Structures are given as C-alpha cells and as structure tokens.
Automatic annotation (TrEMBL):
Keyword Transferase appears in the UniProt entry: yes
Active site: 240
Signal sequence region: none
Native source species: Clostridium fungisolvens
Site location (Important for activity): 8
This protein's name: Xylulose kinase
Keyword ATP-binding recorded: yes
Length: 500
C-alpha cells in the first residue's frame, strides 16, 4: 500500500495526517501553539513554533501508525493564508510572522490603492487592497521596520516556510500566492507591473508553481528530525481554503462549500476568473490546474465562539472538564435551548474587523437588542446565528455573480455540531451536505501530492474516488420568515455601528 502525508499549518495548531491511497485516515496528530497580539488589531506567530509542531506531528504519525517511511510517496502542504514570513540571507527568520487576521496595514492599503488604483488591483490580483493580505504587511515592514526590510532575502507564506525547512527549497504555488496580492491571477504568475509600480524587488519572492507540481524533496537533515525518508517528494500544496475545498470535493463549478473554522468561508470553484467589481469577495487561483475560485470570508467565525468561551464560560469549561464532554458540545446544546432569533439578540462577529461584505478593518463586534429577558443560552445562540448571517452575506454575493449552485457542502470545526449545521441550513434556506472528509485541508493536499507523484490521474479523478457524501441537513421551511426578518435586522446594523 502507498501512503500520502498532509500537513495543515493552521492558526491554532498544525494537524499532521497520514492517508492511504484510497483516502482512508491512518493516523493524525495535532500540536498547538500561541498567537501573539502586541497591540489591538495585531496578530503574530513564531514560524519556529509551526516547524516544531510539524516535526512532532510527523514523528507521531509515522511511529504510531507502523507505516514504513519509504511507503510514504508524497507530502502535501496546506496552511493559513496571507501570513508574512521574512527570511534573511542566512535563512534565519527576521521577525515574528504577521498573520492573516492582523489589521495594522490600513495606511499601506490606501497607498496601494492610490498608486495602482482599485479597479486595476482587482483586475490584476482579483481583490482590492486588503489589510489581511501579504503585500500590505510587506509594505508596513518597509515603512515601520526599515532595518528588518533591508535584511530580507526571501518572503514566504506559512506553509512555504515549512516547505523550506523540509526541502531547503524556496517555492510557493498559485492558490496561496494569489492571497499575497502580488500574483497576476489571470496569468498565474508574479505581476511585474505591480511590483515595479510599488518598487518591490521580484527576487525576494519564491518561484511559483501549480499546486500539483513536485517542488522539492526531503533533505537528509529534515529526514533525521522527522523520521521521513530522505528524498520524499514535497508537492506544491495549497492555501488552507483551496486545500479544504479539494478535501471536500469542491473542484468543479456548481458545488459550493461553507467552512466554519477560526474564520468562516463560502467557497465556489469556477472555470474562469470572475470578479466582484467592489472586491467584496476574493477571486483567487484554485489548487486545481486551470481553475479559479471565489471566496467570501468572515473573519470571526469559530473565533467568536472561542472568544466567548474563554471570556464568559468559566462554569461551562469547568463542567466540560468534570464530565469529559467537549466544551463546544455543551455550548451548542445551550444554544439549542434558545429560540430562533435568540430572543432578540443580534450578534455582529466583527472581533477582528471584517472582510466580506464590508472590507472594514476597524469595525468592532457587538451584541444588539439585549434586554432583561435574555440569558446565557440566548447569547450563545446569537453568536452562532450572527456568524451564519455573515456566511449568508458571502453566499448572497456569490449568487449575485451568477455562480451555479447545485450543492452546498459544509465542513470545519463548527460544522461538527448538529445544532450549528441546522441553524446554518435554516438561515441559508438550502440543504447542506457533510462529507466523509473530516481531515479537510490535510486530505486535500494529500490528494494534490498523490496527483503530483502519479498515484492519481487528476485532482477531479481523485476526488471522485475519495470524497464521499455523509449526511444531509434539510432547512426548516417554517423558519424562513423568522430568519428573513432577523437577517434584515442584522444587515441594517453595520451602517449604524461602523463608526463606533
């Protein structure tokens, strides 16, 4: 039997997953690490923490699975998108990585818009200037840390730093590179005109490949650290959203995915680049060759419930520890005891600003409509509903772009809750399918690795064989009017609070 390894370098931790060639999960390991917030709206991580988590995870899955390292035929890499990793000429990390949810770069975005122009930026990169993307972070370092900027030899994305540690090769691939805002997504190559206009040296960028291309091989040093076989191929991989889409079989037009992770995403594959003229959804290269994708993003999805748990749920956390019941199962059970509409509470999930549909790094979150009748259950439900309304904003925009929607698949940590899945179906008023692909992004890049090393003929072929339907959630049609009214209230709130 041949095996494939998928590494998913996430925001809260790295998941390492080993699969056989039929897509069955053999062994997984997850190691967590810290996120640093030096100031309000800032978010950073130490790239060495990612590497340590990868080394431990790889050793775990190999040693505990009993699989021989030589039988692992390929490695795929997925990771949080947009993070800025700066490496000097000695291949040392210069400073902590500024990651995807960081919002410090508003001035740099204004500068990009002034120099390039909003319409031209969207035409080249698929997006307006965005605080979360890598380019604005690079410009922030140039403006605020000139000494660090002068030291730069290469800039990398989080998963591509792990690629370098495994292979000693500087490389990236089109799906993740699209989120740097320096790639011309039409030609799937670095934009010479954009880099020249912003006075950025192209040499600091890694070579860019299609996502199924073998970009390097495991070095002797990395093999000793990880228990991998020296020379194991490492394939391009994908940004976390494109990887998760492949893992869920979102590889052709008509099938949409909704992912409830730290952030929330509505993702649609397309056969050609399509643009929202306001740039409210992202248009990026897909990990599938000659495909693109449209992506609406809400910053604070699972992040919102995690924040609420940490801040207001000491009793529930204690109960969870005593009973051995997952804390999120306890919280979603509480949500199920509240009514649709949360007894009047409307939650706005803008804890880290917002992308879709507002493109506003400064807007803050809120609970609106609170009264004396409300209890803890209502607050929990309002968070689930508020995040789901934000995802519906994304879905509405994608529908407005004439993207065909034959099926919606749901995944991510939030989607493991039957309560959250039902609320989402009721708000979307669409049926939702889960898939037997709990490893998501790790499975997606394992599939890409399998294509790269010749185990599968194509990404589409692999997904047909591996990604299977699991269960379907039907919307409660009786709640259509109820949620329509609450959705109107939710949409009316942003213009009222955006300057607060």
């Amino acid at each position: 039997m041949r095996y494939l390894l998928g590494l998913d370098i996430g925001t809260s931790g790295t998941k390492t997953a080993l699969f056989d060639e039929e897509g069955n999960t053999i062994k997984t390991a997850t190691y967590e690490y810290d996120l640093f917030q030096p100031q309000v709206g800032w978010a950073e991580q130490n790239p060495e923490d990612w590497w340590e988590a990868c080394v431990k995870g790889i050793r775990d899955v190999i040693e505990k699975s009993g699989v021989q390292a030589n039988d692992i035929k390929g490695i795929g890499l997925s990771g949080q998108m947009h993070g800025l990793v700066l490496v000097d000429k000695d291949n040392k990390v210069i400073r902590n990585s500024i990651i995807w949810c960081d919002q410090r770069t508003e001035k740099e975005c204004d500068y990009m818009t002034e120099v390039i122009g909003k319409e031209r930026l969207i035409k080249i990169t698929g997006n307006p200037a965005l605080t979360g993307f890598t380019l604005s972070k690079l410009l922030w370092v140039r403006n605020n840390e000139p000494d660090n900027y002068e030291k730069i030899y290469k800039i990398l994305l989080p998963k591509d730093y792990i690629r370098f540690k495994l292979t000693n090769v500087f490389a990236t691939e089109v799906s993740d590179a699209s989120g740097m805002q320096m790639l011309d997504i039409n030609t799937r190559s670095w934009s010479k005109e954009l880099l020249e206009d912003l006075n950025i040296d192209k040499n600091i960028l890694a070579d860019v490949y299609e996502s199924v291309v073998v970009s390097g091989h495991v070095t002797e040093e990395a093999a000793k650290l990880t228990s991998l076989a020296q020379g194991t191929p490492v394939v391009g991989g994908a940004g976390d959203q494109a990887a998760g889409a492949v893992g869920n079989g979102i590889v052709s037009e008509g099938t949409i995915s909704t992912t409830i992770g730290t952030s929330g995403v509505v993702f649609a594959a397309t056969d050609s680049p399509r643009f929202d003229k306001e740039g409210r959804v992202h248009t990026l290269c897909h990990a599938v060759p000659n495909k693109w994708h449209i992506m609406g993003v809400t910053q604070g999805a699972g992040l919102s419930l995690n924040w609420f748990k940490r801040t207001f749920c000491a009793k529930e956390v204690e109960d969870s520890e005593k009973s051995g019941v997952n804390i999120y199962d306890l919280l979603t059970e509480k949500a199920s005891r509240s009514k649709p509409g949360s007894n009047g509470i409307v939650y706005l999930p803008y804890l880290m600003g917002e992308r879709t549909p507002h493109i506003d790094p400064n807007v803050k979150g809120a609970f609106l409509g609170v009264s004396l009748i409300n209890n803890h259950d209502d607050f929990v439900r309002s968070i689930i509903e508020g995040v789901s309304f934000s995802l519906k904003n994304c879905l509405d925009l994608i529908e407005e772009m004439d993207v065909k929607i034959d099926e919606i698949r749901v995944s991510g940590g939030g989607a493991e809750s039957s309560v959250w899945r039902q609320i989402l179906a009721d708000i979307f008023q669409h049926s939702l399918n889960t898939v037997k692909a709990s490893e998501g992004g790790a499975l997606g890049v394992a599939i890409l690795a399998g294509v790269g090393v010749g185990i599968y003929d194509s990404v589409e072929d692999a997904c047909r064989k591996i990604v299977k339907g699991n269960s379907k959630v039907e919307p409660n049609l009786d709640l259509k009017e109820v949620y329509s009214k609450v959705y109107q209230a939710y949409n009316s709130a942003y213009p009222r609070i955006k300057g607060f």
